[in-house]
Design a protein that fits this description.
Layout: E1 2-8, E2 11-20, E3 25-30, E4 35-40, H1 46-54, H2 60-76
Antiparallel strand pairs: 1-2, 2-3, 3-4
Helix pairs in contact: 1-2
Pfam family, one: YueH
Protein name: YueH-like protein
């Protein structure tokens, strides 16, 4: 599991990223905003899926920022 920090308004939020290589999926969670998502390696439109689920808990600007960072971090894995 990887733990990344996302800075919002000067405060750090921990982003937990778990990769299951055997079953080929990734789980991402941000406990501070009660949000999580999982997706498979071959899933299409991952950033859009992340963004749309984030909109249920945060505003549009933060959803844009967080979804881009998560997509970048998960592609690095």
């Amino acid at each position: 599991m990887k733990i990344r920090k996302n800075y919002v308004n000067g405060e750090a939020q921990k982003v937990y990223i778990y990769e299951n290589k055997k079953e080929e999926y990734i789980l991402v969670a941000i406990p501070e905003i009660n949000w999580s998502i999982s997706f498979t390696y071959d899933e299409d439109l991952v950033e859009e899926k992340i963004h749309s689920t984030l909109l249920q808990t945060v505003d549009v600007e933060r959803a844009n920022e967080i979804s881009k960072k998560i997509t970048q971090w998960t592609r690095e894995m």
